[in-house]
Amino acid sequence: MPASADLLKELRIDRSAPPPARDGNKRWVFIAIGAGLLAVILGAWVVLGRDKATEVETAQVTSVGGANGSGAATVLDATGYIVARRMATVSAKITGKVREIKIEEGMHVEAGQVMATLDPIDADAERTLMSSQVGAAQSQIGMVQAQLKEAEANVVRLNGLVTQQLVAKSQFDQAVAERDALRAQLTTAQRNARVAGDRLRIADLSVDNTIVRAPFAGIVIAKAAQPGEIVSPLSAGGGYTRTGIGTIVDMDSLEVEVEVGEAFIGRVKPGMPTQTMLNAYPDWKIPGKVIAIIPAADRGKATVKVRVGMDQKDARIVPDMGARVSFLETAPPKDAAPRKPTVLAPSSAIVDRGGNDVVFVVAEDKVQQRAVKLGRTLGDDREIVDGLSGGDTIVLAPPESLVDGGRIKQKQSQAQ
């Protein structure tokens, strides 16, 4: 029994004893190890991320405004196309078969020069018939004149005999009636001759219509028919009938037609000086001026058409060629401070970083984040008032992962 009582006492919980101390040193060891591993991982990610080059597309910005050849500043840029005010597709006035074509593309023609001839068989036959009718009418006049001369002499003779009462007065009256009838026949014959002459002149025009001539001087840009084909101004034969011989353009009438946004049309005035730069020859600046502002707006595009003339005429300027037009202010006074030029950059290169408009400028294989001040919107471009210079290379559509000082490489073209 005493031994059992001692065992039960050992099993009793002593609540007055202090709780055992926890092993806090091990917890801090684990925390320190985890923090070290996290730091190593972050450091490696940063190093590897900076060393990895981002594949991007780049573009070079262009300088606008500032000093021009005229000393004026650019107030607006717009794009358009070269158009001809005088351009015609020349056709025959009649339906006929082409006998000869005397033009080729690129050929210069003068006003009135023969471009083509049609088969004149029908027209020649009609003219021959009309000429014969003129001859018949002239012969009819001669016959009636001879009869009238005899009738007038008969009237004079009978008049004397009637006075002497040697013939009946009825016979004299009959002679007078015959004379008057022949006079009427002569008048009719003369009118018929004039009608026949008019028909002959019409037949001459029909023959002349078989010859197709240039309406004005210009350059042939299209040859639309070949010998043996049927041409008609009305296209009576459907798809098998040509409606034109060729198209000519008066190169002296070339001008630029641009579309200006409604928000900027107030900056454009008739007679305003301009500079035109062709897409094919970007370094060639052609001076000119605004010819007219078309008083109608495009509801869908919210634009207004403007006609711009060019002071220089050159064979390199051809219709439908793309062009960019800079509308210039009048030349400032000689003592005025020069206006600072601006640049145009693609809108896709401008992104928001921390509430600021920035671009990434390429410097060798790295980029520099640069804040910019934006100006006007010109098509797909934006005017950069401050922050860039002409000739800078910038990144197009920079990704979110691209940061200041990041390495880049040029994206390879997909076409091989």
Automatic annotation (TrEMBL):
<dbReference type="InterPro" id="IPR058637">
    <property type="entry name" value="YknX-like_C"/>
</dbReference>
<dbReference type="GO" id="GO:0015562">
    <property type="term" value="F:efflux transmembrane transporter activity"/>
</dbReference>
<dbReference type="InterPro" id="IPR006143">
    <property type="entry name" value="RND_pump_MFP"/>
</dbReference>
<keyword id="KW-1133">Transmembrane helix</keyword>
<dbReference type="InterPro" id="IPR058792">
    <property type="entry name" value="Beta-barrel_RND_2"/>
</dbReference>
<feature type="coiled-coil region">
    <location>
        <begin position="134"/>
        <end position="192"/>
    </location>
</feature>
<protein>
    <submittedName>
        <fullName>Efflux RND transporter periplasmic adaptor subunit</fullName>
    </submittedName>
</protein>
<keyword id="KW-0472">Membrane</keyword>
<feature type="domain" description="CusB-like beta-barrel">
    <location>
        <begin position="256"/>
        <end position="328"/>
    </location>
</feature>
<feature type="transmembrane region" description="Helical">
    <location>
        <begin position="28"/>
        <end position="48"/>
    </location>
</feature>
<dbReference type="GO" id="GO:1990281">
    <property type="term" value="C:efflux pump complex"/>
</dbReference>
<dbReference type="Pfam" id="PF25917">
    <property type="entry name" value="BSH_RND"/>
</dbReference>
<feature type="domain" description="Multidrug resistance protein MdtA-like barrel-sandwich hybrid">
    <location>
        <begin position="86"/>
        <end position="232"/>
    </location>
</feature>
<comment type="similarity">
    <text>Belongs to the membrane fusion protein (MFP) (TC 8.A.1) family.</text>
</comment>
<dbReference type="InterPro" id="IPR058625">
    <property type="entry name" value="MdtA-like_BSH"/>
</dbReference>
<keyword id="KW-0175">Coiled coil</keyword>
<keyword id="KW-0812">Transmembrane</keyword>
<dbReference type="Pfam" id="PF25954">
    <property type="entry name" value="Beta-barrel_RND_2"/>
</dbReference>
<dbReference type="Pfam" id="PF25989">
    <property type="entry name" value="YknX_C"/>
</dbReference>
<feature type="domain" description="YknX-like C-terminal permuted SH3-like">
    <location>
        <begin position="346"/>
        <end position="409"/>
    </location>
</feature>
